[in-house]
Design brief:
By secondary structure, this protein is mainly alpha-helical. β1 and β2 form a beta hairpin. The chain has a domain of about 70 residues. It is extended. Strands 1-2-3 form a 3-stranded antiparallel β-sheet, with no helix packed on it. The structure holds zinc ion. Zinc ion binds next to loops.
């Protein structure tokens, strides 16, 4: 399995965005049918994301195994902590969401997942080790 770091994912999305622009132009001019365009983009994005998810799941399981072994923490401890962290954004929904930021340069939306403005590329200063995760 190849390693995908967050920068590679961001670059892949930027490349796909550029490719989408080109394909949309071609679609408008009748070169590529719209359905084929959507299918191509979906299949290219799903494979790397699935590989990334599998790797993160493996790392989480390995870390949890080590933590249990070294500290004696239990499944109940883990579930309680998951619920606490899940609720930090105000909702128990199985996700950790940060509120969107307004880009100070272009007034667009800074994607918190990538900690980068998707319109102009501005990167806000990071103070959270999980920014971009
Ligand atoms: Zn911006």
């Amino acid at each position: 399995m190849s390693t995908l770091d967050p920068l590679q994912i961001i670059n892949m999305i930027w490349e796909l965005r550029r490719e989408l622009d080109v394909l949309e132009d071609n679609t408008k001019s009748g070169v590529v049918p719209g359905a084929q365009l959507e299918q191509n983009l979906a299949s290219r994005m799903l494979v790397p994301l699935d590989a990334r998810l599998s790797k993160l799941t493996l790392i989480c399981r390995a870390m949890w195994s080590l933590i249990q072994e070294k500290t004696g923490a239990t499944e109940a401890d883990l579930l309680r902590r998951i619920t606490e962290i899940d609720g930090m954004d105000g909702r128990i929904d199985g996700r950790v969401m940060k509120p969107a930021l307004k880009c100070p340069q272009c007034k667009g939306v800074v994607c918190r997942q990538f900690n980068r403005c998707l319109f102009c590329g501005y990167e806000p200063p990071s103070g959270d080790p999980f920014d971009g995760a």
